[in-house]
Specification:
Number of strands: 13
Number of helices: 11
Function: Cell wall formation.
Catalytic activity: 2 D-alanine + ATP = D-alanyl-D-alanine + ADP + phosphate + H(+)
Largest sheet: 6 strands, antiparallel
Helix content: 25-40%
Structural class: alpha+beta
Order of helices and strands: EHEHEHHHEHEEHEEEEHEHEEHH
CATH class of the largest domain: Alpha Beta
CATH architecture of the largest domain: 2-Layer Sandwich
Main location: cytoplasm
Strand content: 15-25%
Cofactor: Mn(2+); Mg(2+)
Distance between the termini: 37 Å
CATH topology of the largest domain: D-amino Acid Aminotransferase, Chain A, domain 1
Number of domains: 3
Shape: globular
Subcellular location: Cytoplasm
């Protein structure tokens, strides 16, 4: 598309979620890239401006660079649907399911897709005895995380029974639902997807090697010690198998535009397990979608323009019944 065809574009960044800092970094990168390609793009922070200003100010398209709640969970998508402003990424339903790691697991399991075993705790509906008994069901170590946070915020790797209560309390402070998940020991990989439906395609798989195996918030965004391997170096056939299962995971949630699926590969069995799907992935200097796209021959600037070109609405205005 000619840059002029996009019209006036808002890059939504910042917001009110716990991932605000990362979103501002993502949005700044996207804004600079779009402007460098002649797009009439502007920063728009929903934490500082009312969303209604998008319509009032004549914005014709939105690039969503928001992460987490109130940006990646279907709420902003719903507002843009009502205003009739096309936006990047998944629609209302897919966004609201994917932000919730438990709901995502339920859909994947219903479709026969592999994901680690889990126990769901609801704030105010469990006691200490139930918490310390969870390792009996899931084994040790295990992972405890808020059901609806991203960027590894509130995530804890529990090594022993004595650590369970603090880990659950930490996650429950961020979310009413706490996900306790079986830990899969092995290779940690991620695979971006571009497109929609049967036209969606998986980009090259990235293998993540974090210091001490701890891919936390600091190591994700601010450490130069984390290694990202692309080509991923997996045994022959494994990358293709990962891409195939990732595409299925993306499609069954009804995602569109783009996304990124995180996967663990069991060291002993080499079987993959789906962890989560990000419908508004990071676009920072450390982010993985641009890295994978670059390995596929797509520059950061071209990726941003391509994603903007895919902006759409779930609901198209039809003929009103008389």
């Amino acid at each position: 598309m000619n840059p002029n065809d996009f019209g006036k574009v808002a890059v939504l960044m910042g917001g009110d979620s716990a991932e605000r800092e990362v979103s501002l970094m993502s949005g700044s990168g996207v804004l600079k890239a779009l402007q460098s390609r002649g797009v009439d793009a502007y920063a728009f922070d929903p934490a500082e401006r009312d969303l209604g200003e998008l319509k009032q100010s004549g914005f014709q398209r939105c690039f969503i660079a928001l992460h987490g709640r109130f940006g990646e969970d279907g709420t902003v998508q719903g507002a843009l649907e009502l205003m009739g402003i096309p936006y990047t990424g998944s629609g209302v339903m897919a966004s609201s399911i994917a932000i919730d790691k438990v709901m995502t697991k339920r859909v994947w399991l219903a479709e026969g897709l592999p994901t680690p075993k889990y126990v769901l705790l609801r704030r105010g509906h469990f006691d200490r005895g139930q918490v310390v008994a969870i390792p009996d069901e899931l084994g040790l170590p295990l992972i405890v995380k808020p059901a609806r946070e991203g960027s590894s915020i509130g995530v804890a790797k529990v090594q022993g029974y004595s650590e369970m209560v603090d880990a659950v309390d930490q996650a429950a402070a961020l979310d009413a639902d706490v996900l306790c998940e079986q830990f899969i020991s092995g290779d940690e990989v991620t695979c971006p997807v571009l497109g929609s439906g049967e036209d969606a395609r998986a980009l090259p798989v990235i293998r993540i090697v974090a210091p001490s195996g701890n891919y936390d918030y600091q190591n994700k965004y601010f450490s130069d010690d984390t290694k990202y391997l692309v080509p991923c170096g997996l045994p022959a056939g494994e990358e293709e198998a990962i891409q195939e299962i990732v595409l299925k995971a993306y499609r069954v949630l009804g995602c569109r535009g783009w996304g990124r699926v995180d996967v663990m590969i069991d060291a002993a069995t080499r079987k993959p397990s789906l962890l989560e799907l990000n419908t508004s992935p990071g676009m920072t200097g450390h982010s993985l979608v641009p890295m994978s796209a670059r390995a596929a021959g797509i520059s950061y600037e071209d990726l941003c323009v391509q994603l903007l070109a895919s902006a759409a609405l779930d609901q198209h205005k039809g003929v009103r019944a008389k």
